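Methods — Computational structure assignment.
A single polypeptide chain was analysed. Its primary sequence is given first, followed by the predicted tertiary structure written as structure tokens.
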Amino acid sequence: MTENEDPEKKGGVWALDQQLDQPMDEEAKKFSNMSEDKKCSSITVLQLAFQSLGVVYGDLGTSPLYVFYNTFPYGIDEPDDLLGALSVVIYSLTLIALLKYVLIVCRANDNGQGGTFALYSLLCRHAKIKTVPNQDQSDEELTTYSRSTFGEQSFAASTKRWLEGHALIQNVLLILVLIGSCMVIGDGILTPAISVLSAVGGINCCRYHISNDIVVVVAVVILVILFIMQQFGTQKFGWLFAPIVLLWFLLIGGIGIFNIWKYDTSILRAFSPVYVIAFFRKGGIDGWASLGGIMLCINGTETLFADVSHFPVLSVQIAFTLVAFPCLLLAYSGQAAYLMKYPHHVFGAFYYSIPESIYWPVFSVATAAAIVASQATITATFSLIQQALALGCFPRVKVVYTSRSHHQIYIPDINWILMILCISVTAGFKNQSQIGNAAGTAVVIVMLVTTFLMILVMILVWRCHWTLVLIFACLTLVVEGTYFSAVLLKVNQGGWVPLVIAVAFFIVMYG
């Protein structure tokens, strides 16, 4: 802001030296322009797709380390149970990760910004539903969507009038946004814990046997170093992230192909949706509860959306469809093929299935990938807190920009709080199962919030026909509602942790 500009014309833009609390749309304008510059050529898009692997997909990519153990913590009773679980994993990745998030939700970014707050900010520019004072006169100019008026009898117009005419609905909408955001913060605490603990725990699977306490200590040391490094930014070593994650995806995909060929090619039957139906018919209460572990295969999709501001949407979509998605399918299929022959190795299934000759290189890459995945969730948490600041939904905290050329921020107070909570969770639970239950609870709740917000975006922003909205709502709510009912069964087995964390942050943010 120059000295000659009237502060009143800037709405919520505060004239501070560090400009810590700019409205999200002003920040988004910078990143929107940045994205436009990045789309200048196909080669640039492919380069950015490669770079996005290290920032966006680290969290989602490390889920094969712990999914099957959290699905069958008490062992595999029958091969058909494993086949059905794999089928549910395949279609969860397809419907939620690919169709919902990568192909649909990522397009609903707020001028480049992603996350629940970004969806809320986007909706607030198309209907007068704001309950926080951050209206900015440049909103209409900044938005990337049409501002044309609704037809009086249209479904969108009716929905808009309904929202604007009920203050209670507006407050409920804000509460949902805050709940979703608090759950993302909870995921930012739980994901580093389970990722690093699962990666380090590989040393205790089949090659060497050390006490679990030593594994926990090593994991805690890695986490402490990770959080201390945040203050220096990721620019100096961030160039390593994409090669590490790409190598990780290629390794798990290649090992998956090897295991399918060596142990059981019939596992590919799981690509038939018939086995999803069979899984639910046969599972009973135990099978239903196992969904809490299966849904960890899509852990990281909200982080994906929150980190989308760093890259053009097309680059993010290319990286997932060409690299992440096929490699994840091969990895899970390969693990399942191995477990068909050795069902008693469900704990540490990933490490048991690695060929002896490449065990240590894969272990090293797995540990590095877990660190990158943790970095992605921490970065997403920082971005979310910054968005909350912009909307006036969080106490004033210091925001440090660690790079002049990239959107890299560091929030000291939040960093140390995350570190303390993450170490407490790791040292307190000491095992993947309970941390997995906690992470599953956080993930499914924020997914439901995103679905509700997306329904409104499709109606008010995209002006979709009501039939398309209904199809989207039915498909996503059926899958996510089923997962939600499953994680409720595990609230007393670790699922209470993100609820406690969310309540604490919710009180602060809502107040």
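Note: The longest strand covers residues 400-401.
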